[in-house]
Fold Lipoprotein.
Amino acid sequence: MRWLFSSVLVTLLLAGCGASPPPLSTAEAVATTLAAEPTLRWKGSWTYQGDRVSVDVRTMGAGDLTGVLDVGGESERLVVTGNRQLGRTSGWSVVFRRPWQNLAPDALAKLVREVGIAPTTGDAAYARPPGVATDALHLDLPNVGTLWLSAGSPHPVVGYSGDHLPASGPIVTDPIPIALTATRGTVAEATETYRAMAADLRGVPGLIPVEFTGKAFEVDAVTPPSRCRRGNCPIEVTGHNVSDRYHLRPVVRAVLSGNLKSAGECLVRLPLAAPGATVSGSCDVDDKRIDEIWAASGDARLRLVQWQADPDVQPAQYYEPANGVELADQLTARAARP
């Protein structure tokens, strides 16, 4: 379900036929109304690549968000504040490139001011979401999507539709058919939401998994013993974390050979390595070929085997500090003045 949260940008070709209806408000008036919203609740559902997608999130301020996203029956709770984006299914993890927070009131107000296009009626770049009134105004945001506004003054936002969520940056995924309705919330609702987010963050572990597929562990030394016997050969691996950001739990496959003949393998599961840290671990190869290689190396009085272990770094689990308590304190402060 990771495709759903990728940050994307789609170029809208707004080709018009005939004269456009006169504007019924101004971009600045719409932005002012948006910026004054304590909270917006966004809900919607659609089908994408055979999966039913359901969204129910609440946004506040410039990018604070919490709610639930369900894709094909798999639910994930989101808590987003500042640059920290967390998701929880069976446990909390860091998630990247999820621009749901760009539906926050201040973020949308900024987009509307930057574009400077007034809302209007007539044809829109994207279809009106189910649940949005037929007389709703729309504001097409180039490179973003269509923002839907109530026909009544001061024209609060009532929906959003597009191929991507509001965002900026390069296109990194295929379009997703988004259709959301928006409901205005009260100051009391925003306050309660901030408090709930803070409670969630206080329960987040100190280190949480990160979605990262690169390799940040380098092996410095692999030390097999000079002599293996009785079908057993211990191997020690030492290496260091080259990342300056992530903690990781390295896993190294050690492949043993004797006199250039395969003698088995084992997995070295090293301890958690902080950024820049050096760690060591060991494993034992238990394989009957060890004795066979030893027996074939010469007569009983003079046997010589050159043992060698080659490392193969496996995909590791990466972690980074959640800073949950610090973020919870910030949200608690916002709860007092949403």
